[in-house]
Amino acid sequence: MSDLTNYGQNSKRIVFNVTDHDHAKLIVRLRHNSLTQSEFFKAVIHAVNENDDKIMSFINDYVSSRKKLNKTRINKSNKLIEHGKKLASDFALTDDEVGDVFDLIAEEFPEL
Hints:
The chain is mainly alpha-helical and 112 residues long. The longest helix has 21 residues.
């Protein structure tokens, strides 16, 4: 039970590997924009979690070009996101309540 009371407050580490060349290029681009790696990745995570239109468009283009998802599943996902946004604006839900709606959608449609 104590894990549930601290949910959302515990830090998690995200680790993945890239080549030294890609890492160096990233660092140069981030320094050019006065960003740290941490700031950049936190901003990306926030944008994904908030279904930011620009990042979602990028992700949809990426998964479509890599054939990770077919266009039908991408469109279905986009419709669910838009429906969630509409619900949020119709009922003036808080961010936490909107998150709960998306959690329910994810439970109901785990294939998305």
